[in-house]
UniProtKB/TrEMBL annotation:
PROSITE patterns for the chain: PPR
Protein name (record): Pentacotripeptide-repeat region of PRORP domain-containing protein
NCBIfam families registered for this protein in UniProt: PPR
PPR repeat start-end pairs: 117-151, 152-186, 297-331, 332-366, 405-440
Organism name: Mucor saturninus
């Protein structure tokens, strides 16, 4: 590229033309005869050059040719050439372009001897507006008046467009009042400019009010197709059905269909997508027959894709995506962003990454929104380590060109933390948050500690935790100023405790412990964190207690479980629900304390007048499982009788738990009761009956499994197997 001082860069080919147009400087050997010029021919040549430069849209060449013409003693420039020159110059983006227009208008009054009219001043107003100088554009009105030209409707419309470019609605409305004061009747273009500015500024109520006055006031200019398109766009963005539906009905009337252009059709589709997806699809599939003059473009397909995905129809979305490709329309960043958003909602990182790579293959640069949407999928539990590693690689590749927020990085850290990738999470924290490019929040530190817990580096996790705990205390102290205010909350504690409840050491023998010194290090850590909550004035929630109870059950730690149970009893701020009682029963069942399970069951199965908590179907399954596994099968029939007597709605899982409990009794009497229960009270999958739960594969497998364990005869077991085949389970 060649750069000349005071001009924009031009290609080598154009630079040669530019140099060719420069005046020739005489050399020492220049002969006198060559200096004799035919002024008439040169003037004609410069005028031709000017016309060509205007035709090519090259303002620099046009300005050079104009200056050459102006130097000639004979002028042959007419108003038509001047106007074409100003039409070109008004689109200039530099201050010298405005100066050039001013010079041309001055030259018209002088050497060109062409009296300036409204058109020339409108070009100057337009140029000021393009360069975001609406006040200078307004001052042109005084210049016009000094030359004996009164501003007209076109003047004011041009000036209104300047205020629209500057997003200055107040000045635009003030100018509208000035027009009325000066008896200049606003036309449809005037109101359309105001309406579009209101649309830009999201002033929907004022927009709809102005439109309704246009539509009903006989003294105002009437709406045209551009008006309808603008108002419909506003109705779609604001969800105003009362305004949008009548406009759609009016536009889709048979007599007006020929006037609908692609932009209006896109706005109709965008509006309808919020409430009437079936109409959107009907319009799309009827375009060829009912609107043959309209050909769907990329915007159309993007609207359709977004509508399908927001309405939960991804299959239709990908069919339309196929239509888009068959129409030879290349997807753009909006297309890919919409599809990646859809995959983000269902947590499908693998397919989202494929879309992202397809986009890069098409040389489409990703934006912050797309990368944020992609990174957010990292928090999905469906995300695999392989896909997460791919995502981390993409983050490194595009990080410098994109500006992601704290939430996006938190999602990535959480996804890696779930898999125990402590080194990667620590690297992200060091790379992103230590240099303050993003400010960390409590979720950031939650994910950092979580990563070390899931990687089983408990000492490292607790070291970070203790630092955070002390920082939390400083944040609570009003006298202490901290750079980053981080306050720990119940979500922080519940997340860490829930993670610690996972027994990742499956090599150890599982046994129940009543000794505080024999507790699992992970459970001890969970208890230490839990015990910090009240001193820090952080109230444990039901979820926190549930997480601790689950941890006790996983580690079969009756000692810690009893401590938690006591805290539940004395916690004045806790209102235990059936979820907590179910977690209690499950934990005690896992610690082989069936008697306590039955005590809790008695508490929640009291009459409604004495208990505010009633058992649910999960409670029933837990109590029967506990009776069966903890040698209390004899108590199960009494509970079953109570359930039947009170009309409790039992499901298949409840029956399966009770059947297994009966089968665990010694001998075959319990097994026979279970078999009889299945035949009398359960229905088969092929003929489900109302009020009778449908037996499933587990129901039959339980019977067969215990029949084998109890040493039933070959023929009886064979009969059970044949029965299973008949049931097609």
């Amino acid at each position: 590229m060649i750069q000349r001082k005071g001009t924009q860069s031009i290609s080598y080919g154009l630079s040669k033309i530019y140099l060719f147009l420069q005046p020739i400087k005489p050399k020492s050997t220049f002969q006198f005869g060559h200096a004799c010029r035919d002024y008439s021919n040169n003037t004609q040549s410069d005028l031709t050059t000017l016309r060509r430069a205007i035709g090519r849209g090259n303002i620099n060449h046009a300005r050079f040719a104009y200056d050459n013409l102006l130097k000639q003693s004979q002028q042959k420039m007419d108003r038509d050439v001047v106007r074409k020159l100003l039409l070109l110059a008004r689109h200039g983006k530099h201050s010298q372009d405005i100066e050039f227009i001013q010079n041309v208008i001055r030259d018209m009054k002088g050497p060109l001897q062409i009296l300036p009219q409204h058109f020339e001043y409108h070009a100057l107003i337009f140029a000021y507006g393009l360069q975001q100088e609406p006040e200078k554009a307004y001052n042109v009105l005084n210049l016009m008046r000094s030359d004996g030209l009164e501003p007209n409707i076109y003047t004011y419309n041009t000036l209104l467009a300047c205020y629209k470019r500057a997003n200055n609605l107040d000045k635009a409305e003030s100018l509208l009042d000035e027009m009325k004061f000066k008896k200049i009747e606003p036309d449809t273009v005037t109101y359309n400019t105001i309406l579009h500015l209101m649309l830009r500024m999201d002033k929907f109520d004022r927009l709809f009010d102005l439109y309704e006055r246009m539509d009903t006031d006989t003294n105002m200019a009437k709406p045209d197709m551009y008006t309808y398109s603008t108002v419909l766009d506003a109705a779609a963005k604001s969800g105003n059905q009362e305004i949008g539906n009548p406009i759609c009905d009016k536009l889709l009337d048979t007599n007006k269909r020929k006037d609908i252009d692609l932009n209006i059709m896109n706005n109709i589709l965008r509006f309808k997508a919020n409430t009437a997806m079936h109409q959107v699809l009907e319009l799309y599939y009827s375009l060829a027959d009912q609107f043959p003059h309209i050909r769907a473009d990329r915007v159309t397909y993007n609207i359709l894709l977004d509508a399908c995905l927001k309405n939960g129809n991804p299959a239709k979305a990908y069919m339309i995506y196929g239509d888009m490709k068959r129409a030879a329309l290349k997807p753009d960043v909006i297309t890919y962003g919409t599809l990646i958003d859809a995959e983000s909602k269902v947590g499908n990182l693998k397919d989202a990454l494929q879309l992202f790579q397809d986009m890069c293959h098409e040389l489409i640069e990703p934006n912050d929104r797309i990368m944020t949407s992609l990174v957010n999928i990292a928090a999905s539990k469906k995300a695999t380590l392989k896909d997460l590693d791919t995502l981390v690689g993409l983050m490194k590749q595009f990080r410098r060109s994109l500006n992601l927020d704290t939430r996006a990085y938190n999602s990535l850290m959480y996804g890696l933390a779930l898999h125990g990738r402590s080194k990667q999470v620590q690297h992200i924290y060091d790379d992103v948050f230590r240099d303050s490019s993003c400010q960390p929040d409590v979720a950031t530190f939650t994910n950092l500690v979580l990563a070390y817990i899931n990687d089983d580096y408990l000492d490292d996790a607790m070291e970070i935790y203790y630092t955070l705990r002390e920082h939390h205390k400083k944040c609570r102290d009003e006298k202490t100023k901290v750079k980053i205010p981080i306050r720990l909350d119940t979500t922080f504690y519940s997340t860490l405790i829930a993670s610690l409840s996972r027994n990742i050491d499956n090599t150890k023998q599982q046994y129940t412990t009543d000794d505080e010194y024999d507790s699992s290090p992970r459970l001890v850590t969970a208890m230490a964190i839990f015990n910090d909550m009240r001193p820090l004035q952080i109230q444990p929630t039901k979820h926190t207690y549930t997480a601790m109870l689950h941890a006790c059950g996983q580690y079969r730690d009756r000692y810690v479980l009893n401590q938690i149970y006591q805290q539940i009893k004395v916690d004045l701020y806790l209102d235990p629900d059936i979820g907590i009682y179910n977690s209690l029963m499950d934990a005690y069942s896992r610690t082989e304390d069936g008697d306590t399970v039955l005590e809790i069951w008695q508490t929640i199965s009291k009459p409604a007048s004495t208990s505010y908590v009633i058992p649910d179907q999960i409670s029933v399954s837990i109590v029967f499982d506990s009776c069966g596994h903890n040698g209390l099968s004899a108590r199960a029939p009494l509970i079953w009788a109570w359930l039947k007597r009170t009309g409790f709605r039992l499901n298949t899982n409840n029956y399966n738990s009770y059947i297994e409990c009966l089968c665990r009794e010694r001998g075959r009497s319990g097994w026979d009761m279970a078999h009889q229960l299945i035949n009398q009270e359960m229905s088969i999958p092929q003929k489900p009956l109302h009020g009778k739960p449908v037996m499933d594969e587990k129901t039959v497998n339980t019977l067969i499994s215990f029949a084998k364990k109890k040493g039933f005869g070959y023929n009886e077991i064979e009969a059970l197997e044949e029965w299973k085949l008949k049931l097609r389970l």
